[in-house]
Design goal:
By secondary structure, this protein is α/β, with parallel strands linked by helices. It has 2 domains: 2-265, Rossmann fold; 286-367, Alpha-Beta Plaits. The chain is built from 14 helices and 16 strands. The protein has helices at 13-27, 58-70, 86-92, 95-98, 128-132, 153-156, 165-173, 177-191, 227-237, 246-253, 286-296, 312-316, 341-345, 357-367, and strands at residues 2-8, 37-41, 74-77, 105-106, 112-116, 123-127, 135-141, 143-145, 149-151, 195-206, 213-224, 261-265, 299-302, 322-324, 329-331, 351-354. The protein has an 8-stranded mixed sheet with strand order 4-3-2-7-10-11-1-12. Helix 1 packs across helix 2 (58-70). The longest helix has 15 residues, at 13-27. The termini are far apart. Bound molecules: iron/sulfur cluster (2 copies). One iron/sulfur cluster (SF4) binds next to helix 12.
């Protein structure tokens, strides 16, 4: 029987700390002893203040670190951010302040080990620190995601792909949402965290997971030894069918989602949780997919009046579909694979996905009641 725990919570540390300790104990899946090297993987996507709800809140991470220290382990906090220096993220995200005087190492993922995650991907490069740690503790943020609907426990482990390799995987799989979900599930299974904790105290809804998303207070911390079980329970909490989340569907199809799940604690349905606008990323027969993608799928657009031409989007774009014009950025929609990475990383939150007119007409026609 796999248990998923829900606890009402705030960022008031005196209450949060015992709650996290209790959750790790109750899951009973992390063996931490003297000198155990424990890799802690929060969501450190980009420089952002805690009230933006982009990063895992530092106090949630601090409670996990203190649990590890109390059990004699050696905690290391790592991630591979999409943009910005690691130091800037730690400073702006409140980590530098919260962890003053705490005996923990911060280390950006830098080197990879080749790990066979099975077909169709074969050997892929995953952060060496994550693969060589004695235990991995995964601490995700409850956020929406324009490409993958939500980013929860399974998706958080994609951060164990070292920086420059991430856009490459988006390019290879980003236009096929189901294939990308399968990749995420297999990476999670390879890293195999002993527990996943989701920070939903201040969650994000709308056009997440970057600065275009909207913070939404939910007041929940959830955890489980299985992120597959946990992510399904979170979907139920926000009122969506679990298989709508592509990673949930992929995990079930791969036989990795546990059948026997018990949900314990303060589980309550959250009303009117705003999901991102998501179009299909591929449809139609292969020969016409390029044409369909160009004309029918949601495309990234910019609010040029707010764009600072900082270059983050064109440097990150895996398809090299963004360039700098004289006064504004320019998209090449022929090249664009609709991975929406640029929306994720824009530090100003001035990019969004916009439906095309033909796409809108087709969607409306397809929704009409044939009767
Ligand atoms: S759209 Fe965003 S990331 Fe791209 S140049 Fe403008 S501000 Fe920078
Ligand atoms: S323009 Fe944006 S959505 Fe298109 S491929 Fe580049 S990063 Fe992805």
């Amino acid at each position: 029987m796999t248990a998923v725990f829900f606890k009402k919570a705030s960022y008031e540390y005196d209450a949060l700390r015992p709650l996290i300790f209790d959750m790790i104990e109750s899951a009973g899946s992390c063996v931490i002893g003297r000198d155990t090297r424990v890799l802690i993987k929060p969501n450190l996507l980009l420089p952002a203040r805690p009230e933006k709800a982009i990063l895992t809140h530092p106090l949630v991470v601090k409670a996990v670190v203190e649990y590890v220290l109390e059990h004699g382990g050696r905690p290391v906090i790592s991630d591979s951010p999409a943009m910005g220096s690691f130091e800037k993220i730690l400073k702006e995200g409140g980590y530098a302040d919260v962890f003053k005087g705490v005996d923990v190492e911060f280390k950006r993922f830098e080197t990879s080990a080749k790990i066979d995650i099975g077909p169709p991907f074969g050997k892929i490069e995953i952060a060496r620190e994550a693969m060589e740690a004695n235990s991995v503790i995964n601490i995700a943020k409850l956020k929406t995601h324009t490409q993958m609907l939500l980013t929860l426990g399974v998706k958080n482990i994609f951060g164990c792909i070292v920086g420059f390799r991430k856009p490459e995987w988006h390019l290879r799989n980003g236009i096929d949402r189901d294939m990308f979900a399968t990749l995420l599930v297999k990476i999670y299974a390879a890293v195999n965290p002993c527990i996943t904790i989701i920070d939903g105290v201040l969650a994000m809804e709308g056009q997440g997971p970057g600065k275009s998303g909207l913070p939404r207070p939910i007041g929940i911390i959830a955890g489980s030894s299985s992120a597959f079980a946990l992510d399904r329970a979170i979907c139920q909490m926000i009122g969506i069918e679990p298989d709508r989340l592509p990673t949930n569907k992929a995990a079930r199809q791969l036989g990795l989602a546990p059948d026997d799940v018990t949900v314990q604690g303060d589980f309550e349905m959250i009303q009117k949780f705003k999901l991102p606008d998501m179009g299909k990323v591929t449809f139609g027969p292969k020969p016409v997919q390029r044409m369909i993608r160009k004309h029918l799928l949601q495309r990234p657009v910019v609010d040029s009046s707010l764009c600072e031409l900082c270059g983050e989007c064109w440097r990150y774009c895996p398809a090299k579909a963004i360039s700098r014009g004289k006064k504004r950025i320019v998209f090449d929609y022929d090249k664009c694979i609709r991975c929406y990475c640029c929306l994720e990383i824009c530090p100003q939150g001035v990019l969004r996905a916009k439906e095309t007119l033909p796409g809108k007409i087709i969607r409306r026609l397809s929704l009409r009641d044939p009767a």
